[in-house]
## 1
Amino acid sequence: MKTLLHIQGLTKEYGNEKAVNNITFSLNKNTATALIGPNGAGKTTTLSMLAGLLKQTNGTIEMDGEITGDFRKVIGFLPQYPQFYSWLTALEFTEMAARLSGVDTKIAKLESEKTLEFVGLENAKKKKIGTFSGGMKQRLGLAQAIVHKPALLLLDEPVSALDPIGRREIMNLLKELQATTTILYSTHILNDAEEMTDQLLFLRNGQLVEQGSLKEVREKYANPVYKMYFSTSDEAAKFVGNSPWSARQEGSIAFIHIEDAKPEMNEILHTLANSNLNLSKVERASASLEEIFLQVVNKG
Ligand code: ATP
C-alpha cells in the first residue's frame, strides 16, 4: 500500500504546554483512520496542523513525498464547529469553497452541484444557509470539504453533534468516499471508529499512546471480564471497594477484569460466600469497545 501522508515528530507547544507531543504516524492511500482520545487529548490541534491552519512547533508533515507546500488543493477539512455565511445559499457557499481550493471558476458551479447532490442537499441548494438545520449544515460542511476532490479528507468530530439519523447519513457518505479518498477523522466515540477504520490512533495528553488496526487493538486489550449482578448499587460498590482484583462498578453491576485467567470464578465465589452481599447472576463477557478505550487512555 502506498503512503499518502507521513508525519514525523509533530509537536505543538503553547508556552510550556505540549498540546501535541512528538507524534509520528503514516496514512496509506484510500484508507480511513480514526484519531481517538478524550477531551483535550490533542485531536483538533493535530488536524489543524495537517490542514495548515496551525503551524507546528516541531516535526514534519509529508504529503505524497513533499515536505512543504500549500496542501490546500489536495486536502479537504471539516472543522469541529464549521462556520458559514448564513446569507449565502448552499450552492454559493460550496462554489466559493471550490474556488478557494483551486477549482477552475468555469467548473466550480458544476462541481458544487454534483457535490451537493452527493451529500443530499440538491433540493436545498438555492436556500439560504441561515434556514438550515444542524444536520443540513453538517452535510454542507462535508460538501465544502470534498468539492475539490481532495486526496486527503480531514474531519474533526464529524458526527458528534448529530442525532442518530444524521449520524447514520454522514457515516454512510464517508464510507462511500473511503473508496477514493484517504480519510483521517477524530472522534471520542469508539463505536463510530469501529464502523469505518483501517487504523486507530489513540491520543492522550498530546501523545500517541497506541496505534493499530481494530483487530490488533482488540486482541491486545479486549481482556474478558466477569460481570457480577448485585441487588443494589451499594452492594456492587462494597464488593468493588473490598476487591483484591482489578474491579469497577456501574450501577448494581461489578466488573472484574480477568488477566492471565486470574482470578478464577471459584476464588470470587469463595470471597462472596464470606460476605452478606446478594449476588443474582454472574457472567463472563468480553470488554466492550468503550472499555478498551478507557484502558488505552488510562494506562500507565
Ligand atoms: P476535544 O475532544 O475537547 O475537542 P481535542 O483532543 O481536540 O479535545 P485539543 O483541542 O487539540 O484537544 O487541545 C489539546 C490541548 O491543547 C488542550 O489541553 C487545550 O487546552 C490546549 N490548547 C488548544 N489550543 C490552545 C491554545 N490556542 N492555547 C493554549 N492551549 C491550547
## 2
Amino acid sequence: MAEGCDHSSCEAFEYKLVLHRGFKLISGIHSPEVVDQIHNFEIQDSDVFVITYPKSGTIWLQQILRLMEVKGDVTATNDQLNSECIPWMELIKSEQQFVSAPSPRIHVSHLPYKFMPFGLKQKKGKVIYVARNPKDVLVSYFHFHKYANMLETPKDFDDFFEKFMKGNVFGDCWFEHVKSWCSHKDEMNFLYITYEEMIKDLRSVVEKIASFLGKNLTPQQLNNVVEQSTFKIMKNNPQANYQHIPDILLNHKLGSFMRKGTVGDWKTCFTEAQNERFDKVYQQKMKDVPLTFIWDMSELITP
Ligand code: PPS
C-alpha cells in the first residue's frame, strides 16, 4: 500500500482519501484512471491475486509466494524487493505494466471485488483471500496510521476506532470487504485463509497454498519457505520488510510494517465499552456470514 508515487523530491504533499466509485483511494498514490482499467485486464490461468483488507498479512503472502516461486531458495530472492516481484494491483502504472509482467503474474491488492478483473469470474486465474480478525486489523492499522505519512495521523486510539467503525479509512469497511469477496467465492478459483491459522501452523497453510497453486515443492523446499517466512526472519529481511520505503511516505522512526505479528493485540488498546460495541456490530454485520475468527492466542493452543 505504501509505494507507487514519485514524491521523493516533494517538500510536502497532501495525501487524502478521495471517493472513487464508492471506494476511497489515496490521492497522489492511486490513479483512479488505472484502477478503472483493471476490470478489463485480460487474465491468464497462471495469474494469481492475493486479496486482503489492509493489515491482514499482505506482505507475509508476498514473502511466501515469492519463495515458492524459487522453491524456497532464499538466495535467489536477494536481488529484488518482494514489492517489485509481487506488486500492488492498485499501484500499477498502466495495463502495459500488467501485460508485460513475467509469468506467473502475481499481484496483491486491497481493492474491493467490484474493481477486479472480470476474467476472475470466468474462473481464470486464482485468488487467495487472506482475512484477519478485525480487532487486530484495527489495532495494526492504528499503529500504521501513526507512521504512514500518506494516511491521516489519528488524534488517538478512540479517534481511529471511530474512523475504522465507519469505514472511513483506505480499504473502507472491513465487513463489506470480506463479505464482498467471500460472497463471490464460488465464481472464482478461490482460496480463503486466515492470518490466525498462519500463526498457528504456518507449514500447513503453506502446503495448502502450494496445493492450490499446483506447486510441487519437496518437504525440504517447503521447510525453507516456512523458515524464511517467520516474523523474526522477515523483520530482518530488507527484501520483505518494507524498510526501503522512503521517509517521505513512511516515518520509520515511528513504526514498522513488521510490528508485533501476533493474535489478540487488540486487548492492549480496546476499552471494555469499545469491545462490547465492536462485538455488537460484528454480530449484526456477520450474522449471515459463515466465517469464524480467532481472537486470542489462547484459542490457538490445542489442549
Ligand atoms: S499492509 O500495509 O496492508 O500491506 O499490511 P499487511 O502486510 O497486510 O499487514 C501487516 C501486519 O502483518 C504482520 N506480519 C506478520 N505477522 C506474523 N508473521 C509474519 N511473518 C508477518 N509478516 C507480516 C505485521 O507484523 C503487521 O501486523 P501487526 O499486528 O501490526 O504486527
## 3
Amino acid sequence: MGADHVTEPGIPVPGRVLVSAKDLENRVAELGARITADYEGKSPLLVGVLKGAFMFMSDLARAIDLPVELDFMAVSSYGHSTRSSGVVRIVKDLDLDLADRDVIVVEDIVDSGLTLNYLRENLLGRNPASLEVCALLVHEDHKLDEKILKYEGFRIPPEFVVGYGLDVAQKYRNLSDIRVVEN
Ligand code: IMP
Ligand code: MG
C-alpha cells in the first residue's frame, strides 16, 4: 500500500513510518529463527490474537521451521477508546485444547499490558506444558513484568501506531509498514 493511502474524514491519518516493511521482514525472520532453535523437536501451538496479530502471525509462522499448529482467539476491551480498560472479553475462543501444549501467544502490540496479562492468566488456567509470549511491538511504558516478554520485535515510544495488522477504527491494517497516526 502506498503513502497516498486513501483516508476518511474523522479518522486519523497514518504519518511517518516508524518501522519499515524491510525492518519488519528482517526482525520476523530473526524471531522465527530463535523460536525454531528454542523449540527444536517440539510442535509449538501459535495462538494469534485477532485481529491485530493476523499479519505478524502469518509471516512469523512461515519463518518458523517446525511443525507448528495455529489457532486464533479474539478479544475485545470494553469500550472503543484507544486505551485499554483492562477488562477483556473473549469474543472468539480457541478451537484447540492447550493441555500439555507448548503455547506461544502472538500479539500485535503491548501497550499497558493489561490485555496480555489477562490472556496469560486465562491461558495458563488451561494447563499448557509451557506458555510464552511473542509480541511484535512493545510500548516503552508498558506495565508488564519484563519476564513475560520472551520474544519481542520492536520497542517503540508511546505513540499510537497503525499498519501491519494494527488499526485505528478498523482502518490501515493492510499497510505493509508501521506508521504513527497523526490526529
Ligand atoms: P493493552 O491492553 O493496553 O496492552 O492494549 C493492547 C491492545 O490495544 C493491542 O492488542 C491493540 O489491539 C490495542 N493497541 C494498543 N496500542 C495500540 C496502537 O498503538 N495501535 C493500535 N492498536 C493498539
Ligand atoms: Mg490486539
